[in-house]
Amino acid sequence: MDEFSFIKSIKPRFYHHSSVQKGIGDDAAVFRPPSGMDMVTATDTMVEHVHFRLTTMEPYHLGYRVLAANLSDLAAMGSIPVFYLVSIVVPESWKDKQLRSVYNGMKEIADQYHMDLLGGDTVSGDRFVISVTVIGFVERDKSRYRRHARDGDVVFVTGTLGDSAFGLHLLTERSFSVEAQDHFINRHRMPTPRVWFSRKLKQLDRVCLNDISDGISSEANEIAEASGVDLHIDYSQLPMHPQLKKLSETNQKKFVLAGGEDFELIGTISEHNWSVVEEAARQTNTIVKKIGFVRRKVAAEGQVFLYENGKKQVLKKQGYIHLR
Amino acid sequence: MDEFSFIKSIKPRFYHHSSVQKGIGDDAAVFRPPSGMDMVTATDTMVEHVHFRLTTMEPYHLGYRVLAANLSDLAAMGSIPVFYLVSIVVPESWKDKQLRSVYNGMKEIADQYHMDLLGGDTVSGDRFVISVTVIGFVERDKSRYRRHARDGDVVFVTGTLGDSAFGLHLLTERSFSVEAQDHFINRHRMPTPRVWFSRKLKQLDRVCLNDISDGISSEANEIAEASGVDLHIDYSQLPMHPQLKKLSETNQKKFVLAGGEDFELIGTISEHNWSVVEEAARQTNTIVKKIGFVRRKVAAEGQVFLYENGKKQVLKKQGYIHLR
Question: Where is the PurM-like C-terminal domain (chains A, B) (predicted)?
Fold first, then answer.
């Protein structure tokens, strides 16, 4: 199939958003931002043999997952996903059907959020690369920044941690006799960005959110650094799947603290708004758990402290634990 | 250099646009659209060994050129360039210095238009790939669509045609004794998107614009098709560099009609607004030339007719000329 026919075949038959003035089919797309809304934008790239292998992911999952990762960034800003633009480098050995599956995977998750495809580029190359840019809308001054944590806040996290990394581990080790293995594999291939949960917090003037793409160690430190506060986290409170509790301590920590790509949210909020978080969790059927609290920083830079069995340790970005 | 240090090093020290609420450094960037403006967005990708080779382009040119191509799309919509987001796949054999040159090339042209870098992703891979998404602003209902050509319009084009393709030809053939060769090579490596010219047409209610990225044959046909009209083009009026006039007829036509990546604009406008185009050209120091006119279509689909030495031929998208 030539490029023109392919573009025609993926061109949406209609657009969900009335803000679209011009979709695919001109030099660029045009949309009209609703009044009172800020625009949110992020980009994310996946490369074959770096971020994935076709032995652990089908083309369909690639599409699903790269857009899910982008949606997670929009969720972490408190915004409504609206548009996406796609660039794909596709090896000549690929069949049309495989390329179409990538677009189908994206469409599957895009439709869940009524997102419209606004543009893209499909070019040939040696190695599969997919790069997606998303655009979301958020009410003015309701963006959820990493710098918004305050002394006295509670720290919370959605979902369970380490599932995606454990799923990838099962796929690469080909150890397929673990209980609930489909759960883990699915969490790796088709993660759920916490868009609806984050949107339900809209009424709050302030909530700090960060999405967990590189493991909670990394993301908690980003909050501590950006907000200039210390985060105190109780290891025993970290939500994890029962199966992960059966692992050796070292492995468990590897997955739970440093396992990437869960696309859950870590956040902080003032104690008196905790009920709003609980209500948002209930309404969107999301697991949310308090895991610690925020205090004024004790050093020049904000840090993360991890409490476990009566010991207090500094939790570094890389997920390594350095005893004090 | 690790990814974090690199991101820090390319992070802008300030943003030109006060609409930026949050630049690089959170899960996503946030900006506030000015009232009365529509948003315009496009994406473009360049792959090593497909779109370029490092034997004909320096890393600096790669950055410059991919952003120029995107800016050309924004120019063809009549919009002001404002933001860009970048995804780069960089081979491990590349040096930090080379990667930095790519960003410097982008910054060089971005600064000319006061564009702000809003985000990006740099990942490693086998083959260099760069993908850029741009966002521009345009006054409501002033987007310049391909469907806006009307019976009676004049057809015009900016700059000279075929220069970029001829420049690439000189580089790949290593025939370095052509007069004005630097001009052609420069037009290939660092093309000038016609942003200012297109913005000077702002007062007009209607003008049809399309940027010449695949050769005028292709772009003229896109207008004819989208507007449902015929374009009649006089080959003798097509603007070309004197050096191209010295080529054989076959070669000249290859470059002028089908040579891609000039990033000039082809447009149509009602005859009585022609003086506005001339004034815009004068103010922005842009060559603009009338090359034909628009008439009602004579077949089911709009077509392009090329006149030469008293002969009238159908000009196809691919640049091939089929005798009637």
Answer: 150-244
Task: Report the pLDDT value the prediction gives residue A3, as an integer from 0 to 100.
Answer: 64
- Rounded to whole angstroms, the Cα distance separating B56 from B318 reads 25
What pLDDT digit, counting tens, does each position of A267-304 carry? Answer: 999 999 999 999 999 999 999 999 999 999 999 999 99
User: Using CA atoms, how far apart are residues A317 and B276, in angstroms rounded to an integer?
Assistant: 58
CB contact under 8 A, A121 and B45: yes
Q: Are B121 and A43 in contact (CB under 8 A)?
A: yes
Give the containing element (helix H, strand E) for A268. Answer: strand A264-269
Q: Is B318 on the interface with A (CB under 8 A)?
A: no
In the predicted model, is pLDDT for residue A324 greater than 50? no
For residue B33, what is the DSSP state?
Answer: P
What the block records as the tokens of B121 is 């992703």
In 3D space, the residue among B98, B140, B154 whose CA is nearest the CA of residue B268 turns out to be: B154
CB atoms within 10 A of CB B271: 11
Nearest CB among B30, B136, B145 relative to A26 is that of B145
From residue A192, alpha-carbon distances to A113, A116, A143, A159 in Å are: 11, 18, 20, 10
User: pLDDT tens across B68-116, in order?
Assistant: 999 999 999 999 999 999 999 999 899 999 999 999 999 999 999 999 9
**Which residue segments constitute the domains of chain A, with CATH numbers given?**
3-139 (3.30.1330.10), 146-322 (3.90.650.10)
pLDDT at A294: 98
Beta bridge partners of B230: B295
d(Cα B1, Cα B7) in Å, to the nearest integer?
10
How close B24 gets to chain A, by Cα (Å)? 10
Chain A residues inside the 8 Å CB shell of B125: 47, 49-50, 127, 129
Q: Which residues in chain B come in under a pLDDT of 50?
A: 322-324
By Cβ distance, the residue of B31, B38, B87 closest to A30 is: B38
Q: What is the pLDDT of residue B323?
A: 39
DSSP A57: -
Q: Flag whether residue B142 sits within 8 Å of chain A, measured between CB atoms.
A: no
* DSSP structure class, residue B78: T
From residue B74, alpha-carbon distances to A30, A234, A240, A266, B123 in Å are: 10, 51, 47, 37, 27
Question: Which residues in A lie closer than 8 A to residue B209 (C-beta atoms)?
Answer: 27
